[in-house]
């Protein structure tokens, strides 16, 4: 469906149902923008009559009177992973004068965590602010990967509009759908930016039609679907309103934000209401709460009340107050409704709590996020090499670290298990949990983790499991093997699109557990040319058994140091995971067997030395380069009877039961 077809269809809808745009009935954009903050089931009957309380039920007649600050704009940048959000923020900061002319600034300056720079992805949502004429524009850069969707959900509570970036070649992908659905549910007006229009394979007109189709698919209102469209090249720092008239800078984008993102609403004279959407910490100031002031005014040294998630209250004083200005935080004396600020001096505050006036304690319902669907068991490292590398190795250290993670990560849950040395961590996906493990590893923790498992629940008396929408982009010659692999994992194809460029896009509905361990197999089958993305789609009845890894493992049968001689003789048995001179212990997995059963091997064997001369010279030992597994690859590789041992210096695979004579044997069937 093209742009003209979409507008004709909308005209017909208006003609058939004129009441939908009646001036008497408030539209969805007017009435539901903040319904997620005030769900009707949590709202007292008399609340709509209270003129000072923040609600999503402000009538259109009162809307103009409720503008808190006409010189503010709060906007979030949302998109699929690698569609250019952080690069665009870089350009906005540069052109707004946030940096000096001679200032050296790193690329993707908002990605300030080492892991983010190494992987090229945004993991944590971050705030910044830029000046445009007399306006201050607060910008939130959000992650693009589905596993970090909790960051997107909580940041949308702070803004009044969104900037949706779409790659001009790839078009809308699963995370595009997810973030747009969340924004439309909150009634936030979107600005669509088609990025990377300089790509040789860009197809902006087709992608724009796909974006219109996506809006219609998500039941967008008439106001939301009449979004402005900009064509941008974030790397070059340009944007234009027409494809055939590229801009010279990002001024058209700034103007679109000013014109189409409404100023924040609220009542400055009302009692204070601020929702905590993010946390930070400082060695000098302690915990710092980041959030938006919805009503009222907060000043330095004010006495405020923190309304806890458990229903209790805590009286405290604001010791420091900061606002965002570029990449810096500047101290301010007061903040009013519509501002996004940082408050220091409040101990034990967590995300979702309300900071309210000390006398008028009006609570804002906490941020609702989607349920996590993947679980892993985190345990104390019990291998023979435990304690050699890490600084934090006890169960108390592990429990304290996971408790700190819960404070700033609303999409993670931690549950106790039967053993005090193990905890069940539930998150959005493998990537989110592997990032948590990698961060713990770099902080000096030792931990051993199990194979990921999915969370099931009973719906109408039927055991149900999470299913995902899987989108795969592969060269045409690999589509057959990919379809076969997904089929063995209970996946069902829902759509196939061939754009005639030599690549084909395949869409599947697949159980979440079918994706565990699939990525490495997928990259092998497509020789590294395939691209896959997936996102949670819902719950369906249990799909049945899914085969796990078909091959067995090569397991060390004694402790020692791996030798080149032993590895040379084991190469024909399978693929080796370690290099010579590596310390091994009994029960440690040193490679992948080419057959289905596990094999205990002696990887420490040395060549017999003798004083007898051989009739021929010794042949030089030629070793095949080992496959050194990354953390994600190791987690995907292991089976239920295996664990990944993670230390600051090493990643090792091991059997749950180390002693070979006590370990049940895996048959070849």
> Spans of 5+ residues with little confidence (pLDDT < 50)?
6-65
Rg (C-alpha, Å): 28 Å
Structural class assignment: alpha+beta
Proportion in β-strands? 25-35%
Assign a percent range to the helix content. Answer: 10-25%
Number of DSSP helical runs: 16
Oligomer: single chain
Number of strands: 35
Main beta sheet: strand number and arrangement? 11 strands, mixed
- Give the overall shape, derived from the CA principal axes: globular
End-to-end Cα distance: 52 Å
**What does the average pLDDT come to?**
80
Task: Explain the overall architecture.
The chain has 669 residues and is α+β, with helices and mostly antiparallel strands. The chain contains 16 helices and 35 strands. The chain is globular and about 95 Å long.
Briefly, what is this?
The chain is an alpha+beta fold.
Notable features of this structure?
669 residues; alpha+beta; 11-stranded mixed sheet; 8-stranded antiparallel sheet; 16 helices
Walk me through the topology.
Blueprint: H1 3-16, H2 28-31, H3 60-63, E1 72-79, H4 85-95, H5 114-119, E2 126-132, E3 135-141, H6 149-155, E4 161-167, H7 174-185, E5 190-195, H8 204-217, H9 222-225, E6 229-233, E7 238-240, H10 251-260, E8 273-282, E9 286-295, E10 297-299, E11 303-307, E12 313-317, E13 320-325, E14 328-331, E15 334-336, E16 340-344, E17 354-357, E18 374-379, H11 395-408, E19 413-416, E20 422-427, H12 430-442, E21 447-449, E22 453-454, E23 457-459, E24 462-475, H13 479-488, E25 492-498, E26 503-511, H14 518-525, E27 531-541, E28 553-556, E29 560-561, H15 564-570, E30 574-576, E31 583-584, E32 588-593, E33 599-601, H16 631-637, E34 642-646, E35 651-655
Parallel strand pairs: 1-3, 1-4, 4-5, 5-6, 28-33
Antiparallel strand pairs: 2-3, 6-7, 8-9, 8-17, 9-16, 10-15, 11-12, 11-17, 13-14, 13-16, 18-20, 18-21, 18-22, 19-20, 21-34, 23-24, 24-26, 24-27, 25-26, 28-32, 29-31, 30-32, 32-35, 34-35
């Amino acid at each position: 469906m093209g742009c003209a077809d979409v507008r004709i269809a909308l005209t017909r809808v208006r003609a058939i149902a004129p009441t939908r745009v009646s001036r008497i009935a408030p539209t969805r954009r007017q009435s539901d923008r903040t319904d997620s903050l005030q769900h009707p089931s949590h709202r007292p009957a008399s609340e709509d009559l209270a003129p000072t309380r923040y609600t999503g039920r402000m009538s259109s007649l009162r809307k103009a009177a409720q503008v808190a600050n006409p010189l503010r704009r709060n906007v979030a940048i949302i998109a699929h992973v690698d569609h250019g959000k952080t690069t665009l923020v870089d350009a906005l900061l540069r052109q707004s004068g946030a940096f000096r002319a001679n200032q050296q600034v790193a690329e993707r300056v908002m990605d300030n965590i080492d892991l983010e720079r190494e992987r090229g992805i945004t993991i944590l949502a971050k705030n910044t602010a830029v000046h445009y004429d007399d306006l201050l524009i607060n910008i939130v850069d959000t992650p693009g990967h589905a596993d970090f969707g909790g960051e997107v959900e909580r940041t949308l509570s702070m803004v009044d509009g969104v900037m949706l970036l779409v790659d001009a070649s790839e078009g809308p992908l699963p995370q595009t759908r997810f973030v747009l659905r969340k924004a439309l549910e909150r009634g936030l007006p979107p600005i669509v930016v088609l990025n990377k229009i300089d790509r040789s394979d860009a197809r902006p007109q087709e992608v724009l039609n796909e974006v219109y189709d996506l809006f219609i698919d998500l039941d967008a209102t008439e106001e939301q679907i009449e979004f402005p469209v900009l064509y941008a090249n974030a790397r070059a720092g340009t944007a234009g309103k027409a494809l055939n008239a590229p801009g010279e800078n990002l001024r058209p984008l700034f103007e679109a934000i000013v014109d189409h993102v409404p100023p924040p609403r609220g009542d400055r004279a009302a009692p204070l209401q601020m929702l905590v959407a993010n946390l930070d910490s400082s060695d000098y100031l302690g915990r710092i709460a980041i959030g938006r002031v919805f009503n009222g005014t907060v000043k330095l040294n004010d006495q405020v009340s923190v309304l806890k998630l458990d229903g209790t209250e805590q009286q405290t004083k604001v010791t420091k107050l900061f606002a965002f200005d570029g990449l810096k935080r500047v101290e301010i004396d007061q903040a009013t409704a519509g501002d996004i600020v940082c408050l220091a001096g409040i101990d034990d505050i967590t995300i979702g709590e309300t900071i309210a006036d000390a006398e008028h304690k009006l609570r804002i319902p906490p941020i609702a996020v989607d349920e996590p669907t993947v679980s892993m068991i985190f345990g104390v490292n019990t291998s023979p090499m435990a304690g050699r590398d890490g600084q934090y190795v006890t169960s108390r250290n592990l429990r304290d670290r996971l408790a700190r993670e819960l404070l700033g990560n609303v999409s993670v849950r931690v549950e106790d298990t039967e053993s005090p040395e193990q905890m069940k961590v539930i998150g959005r996906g493998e990537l989110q949990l592997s990032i948590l493990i990698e961060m713990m590893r770099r902080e000096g923790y030792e931990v051993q983790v199990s194979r990921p498992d999915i969370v099931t629940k009973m719906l109408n008396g039927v055991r149900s499991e999470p299913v995902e929408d899987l989108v795969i982009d592969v060269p045409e010659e690999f589509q057959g093997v990919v379809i076969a692999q997904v089929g063995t994992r209970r996946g069902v194809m829902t759509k196939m699109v061939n754009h005639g460029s030599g690549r084909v896009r395949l869409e599947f509905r697949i159980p979440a557990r079918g994706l565990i361990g699939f990525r490495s197999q997928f990259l092998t089958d497509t020789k590294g040319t395939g691209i896959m993305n997936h996102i949670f789609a819902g719950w369906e009845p249990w799909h049945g058994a899914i085969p796990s890894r078909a091959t067995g493992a090569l397991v060390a049968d004694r402790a020692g140091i791996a030798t080149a001689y032993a590895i040379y003789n084991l190469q024909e048995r399978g693929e080796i995971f370690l290099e010579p001179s590596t310390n091994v212990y009994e029960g440690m997995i040193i490679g992948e067997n080419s057959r289905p059963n596990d094999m205990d091997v002696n990887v420490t064997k040395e060549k017999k030395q003798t004083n007898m001369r051989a009739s021929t010279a010794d042949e030089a030992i030629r070793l095949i380069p080992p496959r050194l597994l990354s953390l994600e690859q190791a987690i995907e590789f292991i089976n239920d009877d295996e664990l990944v041992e993670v230390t600051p210096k090493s990643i090792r695979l091991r059997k749950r039961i180390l002693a070979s004579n006590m370990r049940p044997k895996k048959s070849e069937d």
